[in-house]
Amino acid sequence: MMHRLNLNGYEPDRHHEAAVAFCIHAGTDELTSPVHQHRKGQLILALHGAITCTVENALWMVPPQYAVWIPGGVEHSNQVTANAELCFLFIEPSAVTMPTT
């Protein structure tokens, strides 16, 4: 069974801090998020389980103990395995020079 990834309406661009981080536990079902984008760049670290990020013309698979960088403004969707534990870091583009790819 697959459910929509619910971050309780979290919208990273509403926060004025240069960086915001938090971790989630996916629970017993796979989770998905619809295609979206945000101004802030996003680093996703898979502590346990895995996440697959779909971006234009690419599919990025992130196994446990690895991370993926999604530059700000890039449309993407995510699929999270059951029982995954993930950490998210959202970084304001003006806060630091980050890769664009």
Architecture blueprint of SSEs:
Elements: E1 2-4, E2 19-25, E3 30-36, E4 41-48, E5 51-55, E6 58-62, E7 66-70, E8 76-80, E9 85-91
Parallel strand pairs: 1-3
Antiparallel strand pairs: 2-9, 3-8, 4-7, 4-9, 5-6, 5-8
Short description:
It holds the Pfam family AraC_binding. With 101 residues, the chain is an all-beta fold.
Tell me which CATH architecture applies here: Sandwich
Helix percent reads under 10%
Shape: globular
CATH superfamily: Jelly Rolls
In DSSP terms, counting alpha (H) and pi (I) runs of 4 or more, how many helices?
0
Q: How confident is the prediction overall: mean pLDDT?
A: 85
- According to DSSP, the number of beta strands is 9
Low-confidence stretches: 1-5
> How is the main sheet built?
5 strands, mixed
What integer value in Å does the Rg equal?
13 Å
The CATH topology annotation reads as: Jelly Rolls
What is the total number of structural domains? Answer: 1
Percent in strands: over 45%
What is the SS-derived class?
A: mainly beta
Domain AraC-type arabinose-binding/dimerisation: 22-91
Protein name: AraC-type arabinose-binding/dimerisation domain-containing protein
Organism: human gut metagenome
Pfam families: AraC_binding (PF02311)
